[in-house]
Fold:
Amino acid sequence: MAKKSRAPLGQNFLADSYYASRMVSLVKVREGEKVVEVGPGEGSLTRWLVKRGVRLTAIEVDPRLAATIRERFAGKVEVKVADVLDMDFCEPPLAGSTVVSNLPFYITSPFLYRMIETVKIEGKVLRSCWRGAYITLQREVVEKILPREEWRCFSRLGVHLNMRFEIEPLLEIPPDAFRPRPQVSSVFVRFTPRETLLADPGDHALFDSLLRRVYARRRRKMRNTLLGFRSLSKEGLERALGELSWTLQKRPEEVSLMVLAEISKRIYDHFEEQKIKYRI
Structure:
């Protein structure tokens, strides 16, 4: 009887060679450039990355799978046994690399939030620790992070990612391409670091606090949510926003991320002008 491969830690292995080759063909790297594959599993993408002639490092948390990759691609892939979430994303081997991953679904959100931290903000200029990333995500995740018309976002994560990355869906992958078969389709997505922030929120800590508040209560109008900021009265809020006061009757997904950033900037400027010590 053939030995069945197990998917440890909730990972769905990419088992279709056609989709694996198509995905790697979409990765913009040249021969000799640094690539890090996160969660190589059984090596479906690894095989095609090796054919591209890149300097490949594979990060795998499961020692059994790491041993398989090390044996199968001896001398062609550097293998590190580690939980990628425990690693510094701005230190080798990740720093300066293009990251490719059929990401285990259970670490999707923490990985994407950590990825945000790879883009350093220096004034309005962005400095990225990575050259870019190509990640397989569940379709429902992609729908949450991709902006709709007029840059409207449906999640705090989506706002932060779009502020720092150009996000481009490249290829839809059906459930039958994976083993075990997931319930939903997946999408191979390219993340290209921006050179400048998409919008200036003024104070980034205040902006993140604002996003946490409004998206935690995304079905509520923003007036009630924003009044949750200490030291911000109804009159002060309306004075700070000025002609943007119309947004107070909107839900967060009904306004663009640029408007959300401008709201944050005006609230921050109001606190500064009034010399109000605010608590986030």
The chain has two domains: 8-193, 204-273. Residues 1-8 have pLDDT under 50 and may be disordered.
